[in-house]
Design brief:
Blueprint lengths: L4 E5 L1 H4 L3 E5 L15 E5 L3 E10 L2 E10 L3 E7 L3 E9 L2 E4 L5 E5 L3 E7 L2 E7 L2 E10 L2 H5 L8 H8 L6 E2 L3 E2 L2 H12 L5 H27 L1 H19 L3 H4 L1 H8 L3 H12 L3 H19 L4 H7 L5 H12 L3 H10 L5
Antiparallel strand pairs: 1-6, 2-3, 3-4, 4-5, 5-12, 6-11, 7-10, 7-12, 8-9, 8-11, 10-13, 10-14
Length: about 325
């Protein structure tokens, strides 16, 4: 199967680069795929390394990033595809082409996701980051349709060529999963039997992941944690829309009682829904004040407040400054990481 993800560093932000095809593991790489060369692109502030393995029915791509400063990278999915995705290490936030937050990754996790043909962006904090994506041929969804009912919604989006990314819940990479990942990376493909062996290993990952999702449905406590993460994702994508953030709307969407919603918010966010929404809005406001020339009124509308006065009061309570004064200070004072 051909590659379906293309990484496109923002050249004007990262500077000039050098490229090399390397057959011995670079010093900064921690998760080698044995028998596969590294494509290494070096920028002044970040090094991007890629290993790719084409299989019959799947394609593996492992990216490692060494970032000296926080960096923004564009990537494109060129074919509607489902991915078995592993966040191995680092701190990365993913955005859709519309700027919506798709996922925030800061600990080793894995999950199944569908990505339509779009341009996406990832924000990497300074440090080392590693991700492994296994793109699946659509034959997997036909073969597994009856075996994995928890994947039904994702498979439907895939079959219908949906324009909206679909992300199933993230699961922790346990010792068992680390061991399976090591076997996957250390398997050398020399013939068709090796290819079949790797596909069997990928199938094992899908079975394990599906079992974890089913366990969530059965265990009420874990089910509530899963709902909490779904609410978090909903609010991150819809904080600017007042109607989508109303408690009645959330209770209706996630089929919760008032007590259940309050308890889930407390367990997931450590605060109320309203406080968490304001936290998201303040973070976005700070980003817009620093990185754009939008007026305070324009930012008020963009982040979902109904009046500049309300926005200013909450912003001052959080930062000790009005939005206007905060922006002025940021222009004369370097931003600390």
């Amino acid at each position: 199967m051909e590659e379906v993800v293309i990484i496109e560093p923002i050249q004007k932000l990262l500077g000039n680069s050098t490229y090399a095809l390397v057959r011995h593991k670079p010093g900064h790489c921690k998760f080698p795929v044995i028998g596969t060369p590294w494509q290494v692109t070096k920028f002044p502030e970040i090094i991007i390394s890629k290993q790719s393995r084409r299989l019959l029915g799947a394609n593996m791509q492992l990216f490692e990033f060494d970032a000296l400063i926080a960096s923004s990278i564009i990537f494109r999915i060129i074919k509607p595809t489902a991915f078995l995705f592993f966040h191995l290490t680092g701190d990365i936030t993913y955005f859709s082409s519309q700027g919506e937050i798709l996922s925030v990754m800061n600990e080793p996790t894995f999950y199944l996701t569908f990505g339509p043909v779009q341009e996406y962006r990832m924000m990497l904090e300074n440090g080392h980051h590693a991700i492994l994506g296994i793109a699946l041929d659509q034959v997997w969804s036909i073969y597994d349709d009856e075996s994995y009912p928890a994947f039904d919604e994702l498979y439907t989006a895939w079959h219908n060529n949906s324009n909206t990314p679909f992300i199933l819940p993230q699961k922790q990479i346990t010792k068992e999963v680390w061991k399976m990942l090591a076997e996957l990376r250390y398997t050398v493909v020399k013939n068709i039997n090796d290819n079949i062996d790797l596909l069997s290993q990928i199938s094992d990952f899908l079975s394990l992941y599906h079992g974890l999702l089913i366990a969530d449905w059965i265990n009420p406590k874990i089910a509530m944690q899963t709902i909490g993460e779904r609410i978090r994702e909903h609010l991150l994508n819809n904080f600017m829309f007042e109607e989508e953030c109303r408690l009645n709307r959330l209770r209706e969407k996630f089929e919760l009682t008032e007590w259940e919603l309050r308890k889930i918010a407390e367990d997931t966010f450590g605060c109320s829904i309203g406080q968490y929404i304001n936290k998201i809005r303040m973070e976005k406001a700070i980003e817009l004040l620093i990185e754009t020339r939008l007026t305070v009124n324009e930012i008020t509308v963009k982040i979902g407040f109904n009046s500049p006065t309300n926005f200013t009061n909450i912003f001052r309570k959080k930062t000790g400054l009005s939005p206007t004064l905060f922006r002025k200070q940021m222009k004369v004072k370097p931003i600390e990481n």
